């Protein structure tokens, strides 16, 4: 796929400078967005016993939170285009803090669904979309590296939050832990303050429109109105006409369905295998620690000249590797083998999430990315919503965790193979279409040259006749 050019935005991205501070802010914002639904699983056993919930019911907390985070993508895109990333991330941080504090007073599972799942998920949605969008405005040549560093916030925060939540749980119970966690999540407001805007809203469109206005001043108002209206569009369904986007979306949905259930139930699975609770919580930290280094490393690899043009294939490989780890997990019975699984899980998970949004940017370009990511996230909320509860239901039915790992692994591997095969087909069709366009262009050029030659001959004959 061709890379987006600076002309799409009407300015040349800085690829550095204050952009690295923006990456640091996005690192914090994205870190809370992706690690919080996973780290909350530390509290699930205590909440389950306190409120009398089943495995599938308790899994809905993280599931609803993740689904709301993804479903809020289009709304977040519109708000980011209108108000900029800084204000939206600050608002998202306030919502996240409020959700955890109010959830600490909950007395029913439905109340936690609303506070943690809906309010907290919407806050995380504002943080995630705004952070990804502003990175695409600050970086172009170094964008894979910037995305990798920003996405590394998830494993870094998971590595810290998993043992911290276990410590808070032992000291203050799940209610006091949620209250303290709400205070920590207010740091997203600080992250948002770092996101200094590159341009004013509608600036990219205004840049292009000013060139047209200079040529056609009478149409100024109509064109300006159309430019801003296109930015504020809620859902752009024209993306479904793009073959590469549809392929990416289908494969991504299959990954999202199976991605989070193994994380949600990993600690509980380890406890069933006879692992002590603190050691079980550290499995998430091990996954996060490995993931922490894999994401920026993957960004560096993806930024190389050998991989950048083949990044879609690299993404397919990462998905297949991740799914294979889950298929092998039921064979891990001892704590040592579970640590090995956690390491390879961190590698596969980190590779996928370092590439997941970079691949979308590669397909859509910087200008179309905010609208595209909004559409992708709202569609992904459905597999996100159903994945963990479906896995919990398998545990309730069979009384064994191995079936959820088989389900998640098989779905992810199938999605990776689908992406691999369909991307080969897509690139082949693109080359074929480009050759057809080149032939058509050449034919048009020849016809134009023939017409010019005929016109020149006629002019010459006319001038000769006039002389005679």
UniProtKB/TrEMBL annotation:
Residues 19-427 form the Major facilitator superfamily (MFS) profile domain. Its main location: membrane. Residues 437-468 are annotated as: Disordered. InterPro entries: MCT, MFS, MFS_dom, MFS_trans_sf, Proton-linked_MCT. Keywords: Cell membrane, Membrane, Symport, Transmembrane, Transmembrane helix, Transport. It comes from the Eukaryota. One of its GO terms (molecular function) is monocarboxylic acid transmembrane transporter activity. It is a multi-pass membrane protein. GO terms for cellular component: basolateral plasma membrane. It is found in: Basolateral cell membrane. The keyword Transmembrane applies. It catalyses: 3-methyl-2-oxobutanoate(out) + H(+)(out) = 3-methyl-2-oxobutanoate(in) + H(+)(in); 4-methyl-2-oxopentanoate(out) + H(+)(out) = 4-methyl-2-oxopentanoate(in) + H(+)(in). The chain crosses the membrane at residues 58-80, 87-105, 111-132, 144-164, 176-195, 245-272, 278-301, 313-333, 339-360, 372-391, 403-425. It holds the Pfam family MFS_1. Residues 455-468 have a biased composition (Basic and acidic residues). Residues 442-454 have a biased composition (Polar residues). Belongs to the major facilitator superfamily. Monocarboxylate porter (TC 2.A.1.13) family. This is Major facilitator superfamily (MFS) profile domain-containing protein. It comes from Channa striata.
